[in-house]
């Protein structure tokens, strides 16, 4: 039986203080897991900047960006499994996970000729990216089961395992000076082991009862995928443009700067994770709190990068990139704006707003069109365009949120019951 968060002692008597402590524990655990994942993600370009030349550094950053985008359906799968599990209990989702993983990996393989030509990437890097992507998608299924059962501590551990498998092999390869291909090969190997470890983590203590829940609807996965894909594309499109438009040295420098962007984007993600069940019930107070926390975190990061931009670039990329320090606040501002967009996007999906990701696609198209038309050849030229696109996207998303009248979409809204956060 699933225990409520406000009754974690099993006594049957609701206890708000106990529920608050459980929620606090969940928040701390998810925050710690997010910090670990972000730390490992940032450590890769930090180490790569010292081990690889500018061209290989940019290629590695671009490859990791492709993996992030190609694995987006996995996070759509996680959302669908989590919501379905929370509403209906355990159900068989292995087939859906295998099919989603196969489709994601196949898409990368089929797109290889185009990506090799347009992004100047080696073919073997794309094959290894496909393996890593499939492993991430399969892992997301288990994370969805943990999240749907609201076993937040185990969810946090699972997030840490996934991050370690996703980036650990790449880091080892860089430390061993294995080069671009060797590092990606080790990364694919550790990622492939992750679904096995997560399956052991999620295994229940007692045999599960036969599943009686209705089957998982593919529409649930597609809805989450469309939103997450738009979020990842809008946050990575400037990196891809840098790879195509800027000289090799400037492209590598821009890749270092986007580490600050991703930090500002994903640092406050715990606010969205904890607020999502209330967002699904159109709780505007919880939405306001999540936005306030996210915006406050972004302001702090922008201020910090303003006073320590040179140090930030030195820590991330080494002494060769410290001359880009004055641009640190702009990179952080782009990420902070998209962090606000991420909260609004989750709220829109949870409450059933039609075409919730439309402003993000418009922002991506706008940035791409203007950049290809003006063809900036410097970091500052492209960065100002990226910041402008982020401002336009945030304003459009905010306007869309306040003007929309959400329709109830039961398939994507978690039930109001909440389970223990401790296991």
Automatic annotation (TrEMBL):
Signal peptide from the UniProt entry: none
Transmembrane segments: 21-44, 64-84, 96-115, 121-140, 152-176, 182-201, 221-242, 254-276, 288-315, 327-345, 357-375, 381-402
Domain of life according to the entry: Bacteria
Keywords, ordered alphabetically: Membrane, Transmembrane, Transmembrane helix
UniProt protein name: Polysaccharide biosynthesis protein
Provenance organism: Salinispora tropica (strain ATCC BAA-916 / DSM 44818 / JCM 13857 / NBRC 105044 / CNB-440)
Organism taxonomic ancestry: Bacteria, Bacillati, Actinomycetota, Actinomycetes, Micromonosporales
């Amino acid at each position: 039986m699933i225990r409520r968060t406000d009754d974690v002692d099993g006594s049957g008597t609701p206890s708000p203080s106990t529920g608050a402590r459980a929620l606090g524990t969940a928040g701390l655990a998810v925050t710690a897991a997010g910090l670990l994942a972000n730390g490992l993600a940032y450590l890769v370009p930090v180490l790569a900047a010292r081990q690889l030349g500018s061209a290989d550094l940019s290629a590695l950053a671009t490859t990791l960006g492709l993996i992030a985008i190609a694995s987006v359906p996995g996070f759509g799968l996680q959302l669908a499994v989590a919501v379905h599990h929370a509403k209906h209990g355990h159900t068989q989702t292995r087939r859906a996970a295998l099919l989603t993983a196969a489709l994601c990996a196949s898409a990368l393989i089929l797109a290889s000729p185009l990506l090799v030509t347009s992004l100047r990437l080696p073919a073997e890097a794309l094959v290894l990216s496909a393996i890593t992507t499939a492993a991430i998608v399969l892992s997301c299924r288990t994370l969805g089961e943990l999240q749907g059962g609201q076993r937040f501590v185990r969810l946090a551990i699972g997030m840490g395992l996934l991050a370690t498998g996703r980036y650990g092999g790449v880091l080892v390869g860089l430390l061993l000076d294995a080069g671009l291909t060797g590092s990606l090969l080790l990364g694919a190997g550790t990622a492939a082991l992750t679904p096995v470890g997560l399956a052991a983590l999620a295994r229940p203590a007692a045999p599960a009862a036969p599943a009686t829940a209705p089957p998982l609807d593919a529409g649930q996965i597609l809805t989450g995928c469309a939103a997450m894909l738009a979020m990842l594309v809008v946050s990575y499109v400037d990196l891809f443009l840098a790879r195509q438009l800027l000289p090799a040295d400037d492209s590598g420098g821009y890749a270092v700067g986007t580490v600050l962007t991703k930090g500002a984007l994903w640092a406050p993600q715990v606010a969205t994770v904890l607020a999502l069940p209330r967002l699904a019930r159109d709780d505007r107070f919880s939405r306001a709190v999540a936005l306030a926390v996210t915006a406050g975190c972004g302001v702090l990061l922008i201020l910090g990068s303003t006073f320590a931009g040179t140090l930030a670039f030195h820590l991330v990329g080494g002494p060769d990139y410290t001359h880009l320090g004055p641009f640190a606040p702009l990179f952080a501002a782009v990420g902070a704006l998209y962090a606000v967009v991420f909260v609004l996007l989750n709220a829109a999906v949870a409450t059933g707003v039609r075409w919730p990701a439309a402003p993000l696609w418009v922002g991506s198209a706008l940035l791409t069109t203007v950049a290809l038309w003006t063809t900036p050849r410097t970091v500052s030229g492209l960065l100002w365009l990226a910041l402008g696109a982020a401002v336009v996207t945030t304003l459009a998303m905010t306007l869309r949120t306040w003007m929309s009248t959400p329709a109830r979409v039961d398939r994507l809204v978690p039930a109001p019951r909440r389970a223990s956060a401790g296991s």
